[in-house]
Amino acid sequence: MSAPHAEQVTSALPHEPEKATLEGRNKVLAFWLFLGGESVLFGTLFATFLALREQIADGPSADELFKLPTVAAATFILLVSSLTSVFAIQAMHKGNRKALSLWLIVTVILGLGFLGLEIYEFAEYVNHEKFGMTTSAFSSAFYTLVGFHGAHVLFGVVWISLLIGQLAKKGLTVVTAPKIYVSAMYWHFIDVVWVFIFTVVYLLGKVG
């Protein structure tokens, strides 16, 4: 969010000390730096996966393993959740706390749906394909990358859930608004990372 947009949000909220507004802007700036570090970390995991994806040992290959309909459904759910988080921010700009809470709740539900499909996918691989963490270098790289992203989704679900509770308790203020905006930034980030995972891990795995 640019500074003018941030001012538009805070101007629609009840007056609070300027210190709170400055603290909110600092949180947004610090979070951009955090996302930069996360990008480097995910980039390292992607590079490791690409280096090891052919090292299947006695385990199944990506083409034999991956079932795209399940992954495509999970991708659709996560992308829709990104859209609902946009609706939440739009409601925040309008000062509509009820709509904001509703869209955040929908985002959380969709995030849980994504995690449910990912857990189902992993269970299928382990129980039916005998594809575990230590099956091969490929499996280790796959579970590390995809599982690490899943952990980020879980963190986002918990974080947004806590913000929903805080919003109900404290309302929409210059203190809570930056937190909601930062959480939306985070949610978009993990959605973008998943698009890369879907492309690099699953689509290239089937084509390759």
Structure description:
- This protein has 208 residues and is mainly alpha-helical.
- The chain has 7 helices and no strands.
- The chain has helices at 3-11, 18-52, 62-65, 68-93, 97-128, 137-170, 176-207.
- The termini are far apart.
- Mean pLDDT is 88; it is low at 1-20.
Descriptive labels:
single chain, 7 helices, disordered N terminus
Q: Tally the helices: what do you get?
A: 7
Bin the helical content. over 70%
Number of strands: 0
What is the CA–CA distance across the termini?
Answer: 39 Å
Rg, rounded, reads: 19 Å
Low-pLDDT runs: 1-20
The secondary-structure class comes to: mainly alpha
List the helices and strands and how they pair.
Layout: H1 3-11, H2 18-52, H3 62-65, H4 68-93, H5 97-128, H6 137-170, H7 176-207
Would you summarize the structure shown here?
The chain is mostly helical and 208 residues long.
